[in-house]
Amino acid sequence: RRVLLIGEGNFSFAASLCGAEGTHVVATCYESEEKVSGCGGAAENIQRLREKGAEVMFSVDCTKLKDYFLPGKIEFDCIYFNFPHCGRKAGVVKNRELLAHFFHSSSEVLSEEGEVHVALCNGQGGTPADQPQREWHNSWQIVAVAAGAGFILSNVHPFKAETIHGYKCTGYRSQDKSFCVEGALNHIFTRSMPLSYCKPMSCQIELENRKVSFQVPQVLVDKINRGFLEPNSNHPVQTLKEKLTIELGQAFPLQNIDSCLSLLHQGQLNVVCHSNIFWIILNPEETPSTEEMSNGLTNAVLFHHVDFCKDVDKNGCVNVQEGCHISKQYYLRPSLLPYAQAVIQRGAFLPETLYVISGLVFRKCFITPYSMPVFHEMVFVSAINRGTEKSYIQMLVNNIKTSIHSLHQTVSSFKLSINLQEATSFETIELNDFVAFESQLSKIQYLICMDTDTSGPNEKGCCVGVIRTADYELVSSELVIVFASLNLDLLAMLICGIHDWRMLWTSDNRFLHQFPRGELRLFRSFSLYSPSYVHDVSFWIPDGEQFDEVAFHTIARQVSCEMVTSIQLVDSFQQSETGR
User: Where is the 25S rRNA (uridine-N(3))-methyltransferase BMT5-like domain positioned along the sequence (predicted)?
Assistant: First the structure.
C-alpha cells in the first residue's frame, strides 16, 4: 500500500505512519532539506524514516505531483495533506486556489479506488461538520473545490493529534511554531463517478410476428436491461422481491409468472395519462410481405399514423392534436396491470392462487428525490369468493407487513409503520406520482402506506402500493379479482434509508458492495455535503402551444444527466397585448 504525504513540516506525522506492515511511505515537503532540518525534531524524524525504508523528498510542489515520480511508481493508494496553507497571511481565496490545484494534481497520481485525506482547522472546510460552521464565502469551500477535480467527500471525522504518537504540528505563518488543532477535522475524499453521457440506443423486439426496433428515450438509456431482478442479482430491489415472495408463499398458494413480458403496450389510454407516457416510434427491421402489400398496408401504416410519428421526440414526448387519427399507438409499459388482467383470462387460471408478476415500468414524472421515471413493480392477482375480499385483502397486507417488518428489523432500529387505508381518504398520506398515476389507470379501493421516523418524502407517510378489486364473470359471478401493486424501488428506499431514487441506479461499487447477496442493510452515503446550486430559467411558449410541465421536467432530466434534483414553477405570465 503506497502512501504519499504532502507538505510535511517536521516529518513527525510521516514518522508515526512509518513501519506499519504492508505500507510504503513517501514523505514530501515544500521546503529544501537544508531549511527543514533546522526545525525542531525534523532531522531525527527524517533519519528514522530513511532507516525504515521510507522515501523522503524535498522541494515538492503539491500542484505538480506527477512531475516527481516515474511512470511505474506514480499511483498511490492514499494521499495525506495535513493543514495546507499558502503561508504567511494568505486569505481564504488563495488557500482555495491552492486546494483546487492540489486536488487536480492528486487525481493524476491517485489509484482508481484511492483516498485523499485533508486535515483542516475547525471552520476552514465550510461543511456542517465544522462546529461552529463558518459562512460559505468565508470558508475554504473544500467540498466544492474538490468536486472541480472529480472528488467527493466520503467521510469526515475529528483529527485527534493527541492519538498520533510523536506528532507535533508546526508551520504557523511559515514559522517553526505550533498552532491550535482543537476541533480540527480530517476530510476523506474519493473519486466521483464521471457523468454518463449515454449514446442513443435501440431495442429490437418481436411484435405482431415481425421484428421491429425502436429508439429508447434518452432519459432511460442507462436504465434498460440492467438485470436488477435477475436470480443472481444482489441488488436490494431483488432481495426485497425474493423475501416478499417467500413470505407470501407460506401463506398463499403462489405462482410466479416468469414469461417474457413485452416492454411495449399498444392501444388508447385515458387522455389524462398522455403527458406521463413514453411514446415510441417503431422502425420495421424487414420489408412488408407480398400479402401485406396487396392489402395496401405499408410499414408506416402498420405501426403508426405518419402524422403521429412527427410529433414524438427523443424523450418520448408527444403532441397529440385534437381530432388526430392514430391507427396504432405504442408506448413503454407504464404498468404491469394489463399483464395481470391477462393472467385471469387463461384457461389454467386457478382461483385462490396468488399470481405474481414483476418487472420494470416507465412513467414520465416530476423531478423530486422520490419520483421515479422508471421503477420495478410487483403485482399480485388472485380470484376469491365474493364477500370475502375485505378479509382477504387484510390478510394479504398483513403478510406483506410481516415480511417488510422482518426485513426492516435486520436493517435498522428506527420506527417503521405500514397500514392499509381506504382510497376515499387522502389526508394522511403523500399523494406522490405513483398514486396519482395509478388512480388514472383504474379505480383504487385501498392504499398501502408506509411511514418511518427518518426523513422521507413527506411527514404524513408515503404510499408504496395500491389495491383494486374487479368482478370476474368469465367463469363465475361469485368470484372477485384482487389486484395488488407494489413499488419495489420506493419500498427499498424507505427500508434502507436511501433518500434519492437515482442511487438505486448507480453502477458505483461503493453502493453495490453495501448489499451482500440476500441481505438488506442501512445505506451509508459516500458523498457528503454535496454543493448545490439554484438557477432561474424563463422562456416564451411558442404560439398555439400549452406548457406541459411534465415534458419540461423530462427534458431537464435528459440534458442535465439527471443532475437536476428539483424544479419549481415559480410564475407564469401572459402578455395582454399579444396574448403570448
Answer: 4-170
Q: Helix (H, G, I), strand (E, B), or coil: what is residue 515?
A: coil
* Partner residues linked to 143 by β-bridges: none
The most confident of the ranges 205-219, 252-266, 287-301, 351-365 is 351-365
* Residue 411: predicted pLDDT: 81
Is residue 557 in a domain? Answer: no
- Give tens-digit pLDDT for 515-563: 998 888 999 999 999 988 999 999 999 888 888 999 999 999 999 989 9
Answer yes or no: do 10 and 154 share one domain: yes
Say whether both 234 and 274 belong to one domain.
yes
Q: Phi, psi at residue 107, to the nearest 5°?
A: -60, -20
**Domain ends where: 494, 513, 532?**
513
The one-letter amino acid code at 529 reads Y
Phi, psi of 117 (to 5 degrees): -105, 125
Distance (Å, whole) CA 495 – CA 497: 6
Q: What gap in Å lies between CA 143 and CA 140, rounded to an integer?
A: 9
Q: Domain containing 165: what range?
A: 2-191
Helices (H) and strands (E) in the chain, counts: 15, 19
Q: Give the model confidence (pLDDT) of 261-306 as tens digits.
A: 888 887 765 545 678 889 988 876 544 444 443 443 333 323 333 3
Q: How far apart are CA 445 and CA 490, in angstroms?
A: 20
Do 62 and 206 share a domain, yes or no?
no
Which of 478, 513, 548 represents a domain boundary (last residue)? 513
Query: 242 and 182 in one domain?
Result: no
Average of per-residue pLDDT across 79-87: 92
Let me know whether 252 and 359 are in one domain: yes
Segments of 121-201 assigned E as strands? 151-158, 185-191
Cβ atoms 279, 329 nearer than 8 A? yes
Cα separation, 310 vs 308, in Å, equals 5
485-497: pLDDT as tens digits: 999 999 999 999 9
The answer to whether 526 and 190 have CB atoms below 8 angstroms apart is yes
**Residue 522 CB contacts under 8 Å (≥ 6 apart), including other chains:** 411, 412, 496, 497
| 247 located within any domain | yes
Query: What is the enclosing helix (H) or strand (E) of 539?
Result: none
Regarding whether 186 and 205 lie in a shared domain, the answer is: no
Alpha carbon of residue 296 to chain centroid: 48
**Statement: residue 194 has pLDDT above 70:** yes
Q: How far apart are CA 247 and CA 400, in angstroms?
A: 8
User: Is 531 within the bounds of a domain?
Assistant: no
